[in-house]
Amino acid sequence: MLRVSLVLGVLFALLWGMNVLWRRFTQPPPPPPGPKKVKIIIAERDIPAHTVITAMMLREEERMPSEAPPHTFRRIDDVINRVAKVDIYRGTPVLEDDVSEPINIEGLSVLIPDGYVAATLPINNEALYRILKTGDHIRVVATFGGLLTQTLVEDAVVLGVDTQVMNIELAQRGQPSQQEGKGKEQPQPPPSLRVLLILVRPEEAERIALAMAQPQITIDFTLLPAEPPVPTPPPPEIEGVQRKPKRGITAAELHPAVARIVAKEAGMEPEEVE
After folding, report:
1. In angstroms, rounded to a whole number, what is the distance separating the alpha carbons of residues 260 and 210?
2. At 220, phi and psi to the nearest 5?
3. I need a surface site. Which of 56, 79, 99, 134 has the fewest CB within 10 A?
């Protein structure tokens, strides 16, 4: 009986071994592993040209290598602090040719379209600072003595909020310049200011500079709505009735600084106001 069991056991082992060998040599080898997916950086929302790119504007997405366009960024950290040279639409990959070098290397040239300049303003309104972001529109106003206000820029685009950018010097009222401070005891540096970088026309930047040169003038700004207001249509003309133009406040009546701005734009010598 024991001999019969041993024979059956050996026979079973031989049959099992032959079955394993037959399967190994007759079945096709497993296919090689396919290429792994790669991460690429996608625009989370529409990014207009001349916009400083932040991490909130981007997201990562995995795709097959064949579906990833060439020269695509693979890490979000490699894209932030760059400037979009063209409009980058939501859901499209961010390409190296579509963005600038980091702005602390290349400077402001890619931020400013033709016909515009960049201007800087210190941010004194803490509540407004917390909600401002790149791409917002603001109105810049000058306040005279805390009573009268005059709009300096009707609509300025925010290029950066508290952004460190090379080649931009902030002139702080009451602080000596580098040339004036040579040979003199330098005062303690003031605390760093939060800076607002805005896009304006050259004449608007000149108005801001002239207003900031007056110690009695305070520069402030208000956040404009996301959608511009619909202009009110003019009243219908009545045949045979001429409307008398409404007299506005003259520049000299408002403030001497505004008078100088108006005279400078008109190419006239401003009158000295005592």
Report:
1. 9
2. -140, 170
3. 56
d(CA 136, CA 248): 31
Kindly give, in sequence order, each residue whose CB lies less than 8 Å from that of residue 101, ignoring residues fewer than 6 positions away. 82
Q: Are residues 149 and 213 in the same domain?
A: yes
Q: Would you say 211 and 149 are in contact if contact means Cβ atoms under 8 Å apart?
A: no
Same domain, 51 and 120: no
Give residue 147's domain range: 112-169+193-227+249-274
Give the CA count within 13 Å in the CB-facing half-sphere of 215: 3
Q: Give the confidence band of 165 by pLDDT, cuts at 50, 70, 90.
A: very low
Q: What is the pLDDT of residue 92?
A: 94
pTM: predicted TM-score of the whole model, two decimal places: 0.42
Q: What is the pLDDT of residue 95?
A: 94
Question: How many separate domains does the chain show?
Answer: 2
Q: Is residue 212 part of a domain?
A: yes
Q: Are 112 and 50 in contact (CB under 8 A)?
A: yes
